[in-house]
Amino acid sequence: MKNDVLEKDGMKKIDLQSLTLYIGAVAILIIFTVVCRLAGKNFLTFGNIQNVITQSSVIAVIAIGQSVVILTGGIDLSVGSTVGFVGILGGLLIKSGMPIGVVCLLLVVTGILIGACNGALISYGKIPAFIVTLGSLQIIRGVTMVLNSGKPISGFPEGLKAIMNTKIFGMPISILYVFILYAIMMTIMTKTRLGRWIYSIGGNAKAAKLAGVKTKKIEVYSYIISGIFAAIGGILLLSRLSYADPNAGSGYELDSIAAVVIGGIAMSGGKGNIGNTLVGALILGMLKCGLQILNVPVYFQTIIIGLAIITAVFFDKAKERRAE
Amino acid sequence: MKKRLSTLIMSILLVAFVLAGCKDTTKDDSKSPTDDGSSNKQKEITIGFVPMTLNNEYFITMVNGAKQKAEELGIKLDVQAADQHASAAAQLTIVENMITSGVDGICIVPSSSEGLSTALTKCKEAGIPVINLDTKIDQSILDEVDFEVPFYGTDNYAGAKFAGAYVIENFEKGIETAILTGIEGQQNAADRRNGFFDAAGSHVNVVAEQSANWEVDQGYTATQNILSANPNIGLIFASNDGMAIGALRAVEEAGKKEDISIIGFDAISEALNMVEKGDMYGTVAQYPAEMGILGVENMVNIINGEDSQEYIDTGAKLITKENVEEHKKYCEQFAE
Q1: How far is the C-alpha of A187 from the C-alpha of A209, rounded, in Å?
Q2: Which site among B7, B92, B96 would you substitute to test the A interface, given the most A Cβ atoms closer than 10 Å to its Cβ?
Q3: Averaged over A62-72, what is the pLDDT?
Q4: For residues A18 and A304, which has the higher predicted lDDT (pLDDT)?
Q5: More confident of the two residues A213 and B65
Q6: What phi and psi values does residue A43 have, to the nearest 5 degrees?
Q7: Engineering a disulfide at A63: which of A16, A256, B8, B66 sits with its beta carbon 3.0 to 4.6 angstroms away?
């Protein structure tokens, strides 16, 4: 019963949040379209929209898992390192002659293992998520360096490139991945018990426990989900660059958290819609792309993106206050 | 609420369609004046310029050289770099966005020698010429993409070898030496280490070698540790000036400034001041501004269909107390 109440409460907020978010996204789209036009450059073209989606896809995919973790009230700082690790491990395996499909599967399993370790330490070891994943961020990056003595790997077969650099019906295939992965996760979050439980833990862990939810197990699952999506993100990046860089993914943990926060999921957990995380990631991508096309100096780009994150949360909170 | 949401989505789509519809007509409008203009004077050239980062004096000097040349030639320069660190993914995104914004050519300092294959493929497909500056793109990548890219820059290996040769001439044989290396796995880190080692390795006695990841603070702590383990060190070769500055701090604290000579690499202004004061023995100078200037100059030639050079060695030099003043004067013209 309690879960239903929590969920309904969550749903109401979702609509309010979505409104601000969509208005913000469209406003940014319009502003860039107009300003770029005035500067004699194109922003809203079919090709560029494809570009923005492809550029955002890695962060968007990682942010799915980050959303789930943040919905439980946790955080996963290890996703960026996982991206780098998966890249180097995958690179070595592909170079050793293993079929790419098998490699991808193994990499996803790696993501599951990383997530399981994080999750177990957090829920059963009772160490705060921030600390555990801060530690694993370092450990995983270190292992990545050890794995190939810090060297990058290049010269991959065409098959690897094809994962990300293929077009279907004239659209980059990354669009398909992103939408399928989001569709799957949104269905899980709204239509299954697992999804409801994840919301309930973040909403009120004690109440969820009293209602019979196995909160520890669910918490571990949420980190496993994050590990899986970080690994998929790593595979996509490896394919997009066709180059395994041991430093790849540094800072992606922050980008993914930014996408989640802009998408309106509360850092305290329990409230928000995963679908909006995609919009959050696209807003970040649009900002970066638009500012680059306008040739805004890189220092100002980072300032503007930082302001965007704070503004997004500010409007979110303002709406919440008004609703109360 | 649901109704409002669907109305909103509908209106978003509407706006998007209207704007998308506008695009073609406005595009034509915006094109025609430039077409008219081109019959009178030359079409404005825009060159995309992508240094590795912009939070490093070396690249800022390179960009300033490029900017001066661009101004002189009356062309536009779009400068974009990754925010915090050199990243192949960020550079690919920048190149994609530059292609969208319609640059005529791209000068790039790759974040790594091998990570640019997708970006180069996209430039090739878009018919945009590329000039490679400073860090050479791996030949295997160029072969894979089948794209001709001129390279202008210094050979890090040669520069470090230069420092090594100087050490042989000016320091006694068997001097205990420590080497601070850059990020493990980076080509230029390996080149600088190997260049020094190949030239002076048999002359000096290398007792410690440690990576300090190009960072001042890490150079400082690494040197502290090295000094406590090897108190008789007489020479430190730091693969960049940041680490050399860190090393100098540690040496000063240990009270061994008189006994230990430090040689850095890059000739950043702080290091030049230290060489001038006699705190640092020397630093290997490269000429980043030349790379920027030559990159822009030759790119304009390529775009205009004129001759351009395939390879230019922009040179390296060891700056010591004797020639530091002259080098500082040269650098001043590219400072902001």
Answers
A1: 23
A2: B96
A3: 97
A4: A304
A5: B65
A6: -120, -55
A7: A256
Beta bridge partners of B131: B107
Confidence of residue B16 (pLDDT cuts 50, 70, 90): very low
Are B115 and A44 inside 8 Å of each other by CB? no
Q: Is the distance from CB of A280 to CB of A63 less than 8 angstroms?
A: yes
Percent of chain B with pLDDT over 70: 86
Residue bearing tokens 């919440």: A320
The first and second tokens of residue B94, run together, are: 């920048």
Nearest to B191 by CA among B119, B138, B145: B138
Confidence of residue B39 (pLDDT cuts 50, 70, 90): very low
H/E stretch holding B88? helix B88-101
Distance CA A216, CA A202 (A): 12
pTM listed for this prediction: 0.82
Between the ranges A9-13, A47-51, A317-321, B120-124, where is the mean pLDDT highest?
Answer: B120-124
Taking all residues of chain B, what is their mean pLDDT, rounded to a whole number?
86
Q: Which residue of B has its CA nearest to A303?
A: B83
* ipTM of this predicted structure: 0.82
A residues 238..297 contacting B (CB < 8 A): 240-243, 245-248, 250-251, 288-289, 292-293, 295, 297
- CA B64 – CA B76 distance, rounded (Å): 13
| Residue A4: CB atoms within 10 Å | 10
CA distance A257 to A305: 13
SS3 B286: strand
| Among A86, A151, A92, CA closest to A114 | A86
pLDDT score, position B4: 54
CA distances from B82 to A298, B43, B133, B335 (A): 7, 29, 16, 21
Give CA–CA dist B227/B250, Å, rounded.
8
Q: Are B160 and B194 in contact (CB under 8 A)?
A: yes
When pLDDT is averaged across residues B295-301 and rounded to a whole number, the result is: 96
If you search the block for the tokens 């590795």, which residue do you land on? Answer: B52
What contacts B264, CB < 8 A, 6 or more positions away? B238, B240, B241, B243, B244, B245, B271, B280, B282, B283, B284
Structure token digits, residue B139: 């030949």
* Calpha distance A111→A176 (Å, rounded): 21
pLDDT at B18 over 70: no
Element (H, E) at B227: helix B216-229
Contact A245 B81 (CB under 8 A): no
- Residue B88 CA to residue A248 CA, distance in Å, equals 8
Which residues 79-118 on chain A approach chain B with CB closer than 8 angstroms? none
